[in-house]
Amino acid sequence: MSGFARDPKYYGDRLVYEPLERKWAGYHAQHCGCGRNWLEAHAIPAGFTVIPRGRTGYYGLVGPGLTEGVDEEKLTADVVWEAVTGKPGAQTWYESVHITCRSPEAEAVRKAENERIYAPRRERAEKAKTEPATEAQVKYLITLAEKVGKERFDAEFAKVIKGSDIAPRAPQQRCATAAKRLTKARARKLITALVGHD
After folding, report:
1. Which is the most buried residue in 11, 34, 111, 155, by most CB within 10 A?
2. pTM higher than 0.70, yes or no?
C-alpha cells in the first residue's frame, strides 16, 4: 500500500513516500497513456528523487511538496498525483507516517510475532500433505465429479496426483473411491480445479 514512511535502515533519517508501483502505474496509464515509465517520464522531471530500498525492488520518493518543506501533520500525495496525471491533486484526507524500527530488539519481536502467527499455519499445511481427505472433501468431490463429468475429473485428478504414489482412477472405479485416496492438501487442490470448471 502506498504511504509515507520512515525506515532508518533503508532511508536514514528521511521521510519518504513509498508508492505502490502497480497503483501509480495504473493511474498513469489511465490519465496519461504516454506508454513510458511514470517515474522517468513524470516523477523525476518534476523534481522527485527515487531512493531504492535495498534489493527488494521497493523504493521511496522524496522531493519538494511531498516530503520536503511540508507539514507532517498534513501529508498528501497531491504533488505526485499532479506530476503523474497532469491534473491538480484533490486528496481530501491527510496521511500518517508509517515508522519502521529495525533495531535488533524490534526485529526479534517481529520475528517472534511472525512465528506465533505463521508456525501453526505451516504445521497445518504440512499435516494436510499427509492426512487423508476429509469426509466433507470427498462428498464435495463426488458432487463436483457429477457436475463436470468423469473425463474432466480424471484430467484434473491426474494433475493433482502428479509426483505422488497415488494411482489414477481406474476405468471402473468410482470417483468417490479415487477421492478417498487423496490427502487433504491434494483434495483441496482438486476441488479448486474442478470448481474452476464448474
Report:
1. 11
2. no
